[in-house]
Design brief:
By secondary structure, the protein is α+β, with helices and mostly antiparallel strands. The chain has helices at residues 17-27, 34-38, 85-100, 114-122, and strands at residues 8-11, 45-52, 55-65, 68-76, 104-110, 126-136, 142-151. 27% of the residues lie in helices and 39% in strands.
């Protein structure tokens, strides 16, 4: 990321799926497919990207139903990690929550993803449940998902 160009936040569209997919494949151990990313657009979804010019650096996928939101996916390009972009996306999510009067936000995170859990805890998410053997692993077996919630 060039230090002189501050990333800009803007809504994502289906046209951005190829750029999202490129980040997804580099940032996640079990990336979403193009079709799955594309299926997360429409009336229930609030998808935002952080851009530097024409380059997508990070994105967040949210689903909102009746004042309840779910953070479905968040990803930062590996070469842009450690620069506060995840924090910027989370802050944008909470700004939307305030404007749209969401009641709470839910998310699921791998039990082994301590870095993401730290970010979520900074935004006052707390663990409310656990889904046993929810995520596939590279090793044998499956990994638990922590269900976290933040009251808006």
């Amino acid at each position: 990321m060039q230090p002189d160009l501050k990333p800009e936040l803007s809504p994502l569209s289906l046209m951005d799926v190829p750029l999202m997919l490129a980040i997804e494949q580099k940032a996640h151990s079990h990336p979403w497919s193009r079709d799955l990313l594309a299926s997360n657009f429409g009336g229930l979804y609030r998808n935002l990207g952080l851009w530097q010019g024409q380059r997508l650096l990070a994105y967040i996928v949210l689903r909102v139903v009746a004042g309840e939101a779910e953070l479905i996916n968040i990803a930062v390009a590996p070469e842009s990690q450690g620069q506060g972009l995840g924090k910027q996306l989370m802050q944008a999510m909470f700004n939307m929550a305030k404007q749209q009067q969401w009641l709470h936000i839910l998310l699921e995170v791998r039990a082994s993803n301590h870095k993401a859990q730290q970010l979520y805890k900074r935004f006052e998410f707390s663990e409310i449940d656990r889904r046993k053997a929810y995520y596939p692993c590279h090793e044998q077996g499956r990994e638990d998902a922590l269900i976290m919630q933040c009251i808006c």
